[in-house]
Amino acid sequence: MGLLSALVLAVWTGPAKGQRPTNGRGIYQEQLRVELDKQQAAAREIGLDAGGWLSFGLFHYDDILGQDHTLRQYQLRLWASYTLSGVHNFYVRGLTGYDDWNSGDNPSGGRGDDYEDPDVERAWYRFDYSRLIRNQTGQDPRLGFSVEVGRNFHEIGTGLVLALPLDAVRITGHLGDWQLTALLAKTIEKTPNIDDSPAVSTHMKRCFYGGEVRSPGFDRHEPFVYYLCQSDHTEEWSEEWFQEYNYDSSYL
């Protein structure tokens, strides 16, 4: 069982006219996500491991009216992982937090401070067929794959069309030097919407399916092609009878 670890980060976002709080906080959260996801379940033969991180962010910004706001954000993440022979891998990570605003600075009003209810941030199981064959024969199969089911962060292509935490089934395989990926996923409902219309801005329900083929066998180049289809099933929190917010799309 690994020892509990703590990661403490601080960010100062200086005053900037017209800056929305989600901009600086969004950049901070993305940087933090990258660092945390790098430390997901380690590739070990067998074992149970666990730990946690405490992160701290300090934000100071001016809103569109020129009024300054100060936020101290605390987040606690606890995680556990289990792996068996490198073939069966389990990982879960929970998140809770506290937003400490200066008096009167919380843009949502209320009593000023916000508690973040405990939530499951990551939870997945991965079966690695390639590792299974390697354990049995000592050689990598020419055609290998792994299957992951659960909640994790997923990207397609360079991340331009899709880079989100999703509840998904993802199959990743290889045939010689070719890397193949298939994805079937849906958004976590309380994820902020890419559409910032008031009726749908705080939530979305979108389904994705698609695939990607990559060839990493070139020096300094990695050509790839992907197809992604997105179907929007978000329910509007509004009584606007003549306004539709659904947006379906496909990308190649």
Layout of helices and strands:
Layout lengths: L20 H18 L7 E17 L5 E17 L3 E14 L12 E15 H9 L5 E14 L5 E14 L2 E10 L18 E9 L9 E9 L16 E3 L1
Antiparallel strand pairs: 1-2, 2-3, 3-4, 4-5, 5-6, 6-7, 7-8, 8-9, 9-10
SSE succession: HEEEEHEEEEEE
Report Rg.
21 Å
Q: Roughly how much helix do the residues carry, as a percent range? A: 10-25%
What is the tally of helical segments? 2
* Physical arrangement of strands within the biggest beta sheet: 1-2-3-4-5-6-7-8-9-10
Which of globular, elongated, flat, extended, rod-shaped describes the shape? Answer: globular
Regions with pLDDT < 50 over 5+ consecutive residues?
A: 1-22
The end-to-end distance, rounded to whole angstroms, is 45 Å
Query: Main sheet, how many strands, which sense, barrel?
Result: 10 strands, antiparallel
Mean pLDDT score = 80
Helix-strand category:
mainly beta
Number of domains: 2
Strand content: over 45%
The tally of strands reads 10
Explain the overall architecture.
The protein has 252 residues and is mostly beta strands. The protein has two domains: 126 residues, no CATH class; 111 residues, no CATH class. 11% of the residues lie in helices and 48% in strands. It contains two helices and ten strands. It has a ten-stranded antiparallel β-sheet with strand order 1-2-3-4-5-6-7-8-9-10. A hairpin with a 2-residue loop joins strand 6 and strand 7. The longest helix is centred in the N-terminal third of the chain and has 18 residues. The chain is globular and about 65 Å long. The protein starts with 20 loop residues before the first helix and ends with a strand.
